[in-house]
Structures are given as structure tokens and as C-alpha cells.
Amino acid sequence: MSGITYLRGDATVPSVKGVKIVAHVCNDIGRWGRGFVLALSRRWPEPEAAYRAWHRDRAAGDFGLGAVQLVQVERYVWVANMIGQRGVRTGSKGVPVRYEAIDTALDRLAGHARELGASVHLPRIGCGLAGGTWSRVEPLVEERLVRRGIPVTVYDHD
């Protein structure tokens, strides 16, 4: 039995009270412009701008697989840019998703969520353009977030 709440709707519009983190998976090459990030960019300009600056300054920072960047977009809403995919295309090394990077990012996200007293809201991360499967990602979400008492809602867009 999953401790995750599943809803139909838009993960960029979490309807619960309190502090919320909208989490999603980004690639490690600085590309932003397809998939869930389009919904984020329609709602808030800050996550894209922060991600692009983070990538641009990567030599001096922590940008890379498993890293998390928290961007405040409203008084009680943050966006977590999590680096969980290598590149953007399926090729000889398989699909872009990197489950170990998502696991590391979720572990880091848990720390941020606990500090902020936040719930976490996300689409089925790593399962769209990244090519992953929810049967591999869901246990990571359960282990890293739900078992630590962090409320998690997964949104399936209409």
C-alpha cells in the first residue's frame, strides 16, 4: 500500500495548505523546453532562470547528477530542480533517466522538505521524456520521502 496520494491535475497548482515543494527532474546538459518544465515556465519564470544560471556556473557549483536546486516562487511554494537524467536522448547508453541520481536527489529533497516543513508535489518524475518507469521511481519516492513522514502527492495530468 502506497503512502503517496495520487490525483488527476496539475502539479504546479498544489491545493493543500502550508509550505509546498513542486519537484521535477531536469537533465544534466542545461536544456529546458520540453515536458513538465513547460508547465513550470508558464506559471513561474524563476525555476528556468535559476536552472540556466546553475548550469552556466556549473564549474563553480554543485550542478550534476543527483543535485537539487530549490527556488522560491511564492511565499509558501518552492520548486525543486533535481538533476536526474543524463542528456536528453535515448541512445547507445539507453534512456536518459538515471535512477541512482533521482534517488540521491530525493534524499537531498527530503532534507529541504523537513527544514521547511513542506509537502512534496510532483508529476511521475523521470517517466516522461527521460524514459523511466514509475515502477522503478515509486519505491524511491516511498523510501526517501514517505517513510520519513513527508506528505507526497503525485499528479497525473489530464
Structural class category: alpha/beta
Helix count equals: 4
List low-pLDDT spans: none
Adjacency order of strands in the biggest sheet: 1-6-5-2-4-3
Radius of gyration (CA) equals: 14 Å
The total of beta strands comes to 6
Mean pLDDT: 95
Question: How large a portion of the residues is in β-strands, by DSSP E?
Answer: 15-25%
- SSE pattern, N- to C-terminal: EEHHEEHEHE
In short:
By secondary structure, the protein is an alpha/beta fold. The chain has four helices and six strands; from the N terminus they run ββααββαβαβ. 30% of the residues lie in helices and 23% in strands.
Describe this structure in words.
It is built from 4 helices and 6 strands. The chain has a 6-stranded mixed beta sheet with strand order 1-6-5-2-4-3, with helices on both faces. It is an alpha/beta fold and 158 residues long. Helix 3 packs parallel to helix 4.
Label this structure with key terms.
single chain; 158 residues; six-stranded mixed beta sheet; 4 helices; 6 strands; globular
Topology summary:
Blueprint: E1 5-8, E2 20-27, H1 36-43, H2 46-56, E3 68-74, E4 77-85, H3 99-116, E5 119-122, H4 134-144, E6 152-156
Parallel strand pairs: 1-6, 2-4, 2-5, 5-6
Antiparallel strand pairs: 3-4
Helix pairs in contact: 3-4
